[in-house]
Amino acid sequence: MTIKRKRSPRKRSKRKKKLSKRQLRVITLIASALLLGILVWGVFRIKTVHNSLLNTFNHPAFTLKYPVRGVDVSHHNGGVNWDELREENVCFVYLKSTEGVSIKDKDYKENYKLAKEVGLRVGTYLFYAFKLDGEKQAKLFITNSNVDTEDLVPAIDVEHSRYNRMYKNSKERDQIVKELKVLEKELFKYYGVRPVIYTNKDCYKLYIKDHFPDNPLWICDLEDEPSDEIDNWVIWQFSHSGNISGSFNDIDLNYYRYSFREFSKLLMP
């Protein structure tokens, strides 16, 4: 009988293929690109969510901190459903009345009436036209505006625009401040209270700082809370693109700095 021997299995050679330097570079580049893409998407996503929250009153960092909410409205906003707006827990609104020495906001009177009817605290502001006569601007505002007891203190809007350009010449800037002081003085004399001054970081440095220390400030900053270095700010405008019920178009959103109890300090006696 022939005995068949079992053949031992062949040992497979374990050859490791070494990657070339070029292949390693390609793999590294692909991995880096994927990682970068993930990071960019993550940052974009976070920023998108953050920005969308900043266009509402629902941002977790500010909802509890600033319970007193407000908007500001001019004819540029188009229609407003004031009942729906009130349901967004908005409690105050500033309405544009005049601009410069001759322009009256066409929707002001109707907006004032409707906002009061739904129980909002209503304030009135004028848009300051650079270098024009401050006394005449005050006169137009006073004759066109409703400012009653328990309304918000009147406000002056000081910002750059296509008409209010930034002048490099210091003498021209001094002229802007001079007429603004005349305007502020006339409103103070007529209403008996210092008007609120609305502005942004750039215009604050150019025209407001060191010139109006006793006026409450309404600061526009779409990126950060107003700095505590500006100790007299009372309102923060944080969005020009508010997306809330009651407004058919984008609307400006604002927080009052302090509590409901202290909010009474911003009302006309």
Written overview of the protein:
The protein contains seven helices and nine strands, in the order H-E-H-E-E-H-E-H-E-H-E-H-E-E-E-H. With 269 residues, it is of the alpha/beta class. The protein folds into two domains: 21-54; 65-266, Glycosidases (TIM Barrel, Alpha-Beta Barrel), CATH 3.20.20.80. The chain is globular. Residues 11-15 and 40-52 have low confidence and may be disordered.
Helix/strand structural class: alpha/beta
Whole-number mean pLDDT = 88
CA radius of gyration: 30 Å
Give the strand order, joined by hyphens, for the main sheet: 1-2-4-5-6-7-8-9
Measured by DSSP, the beta-strand proportion falls in: 15-25%
Sheet with the most strands, sense and barrel status: 8 strands, mixed, barrel
Distance between the termini: 124 Å
CATH fold category name of the largest domain: TIM Barrel
Count up the domains: 2
Helix proportion: 25-40%
SSE order, one letter for each helix or strand: HEHEEHEHEHEHEEEH
Work out the helix count: 7
- E-strand count: 9
CATH class of the largest domain: Alpha Beta
Low-confidence stretches: 11-15, 40-52
CATH homology group of the largest domain: Glycosidases
Task: Tell me the CATH architecture of the largest domain.
Answer: Alpha-Beta Barrel
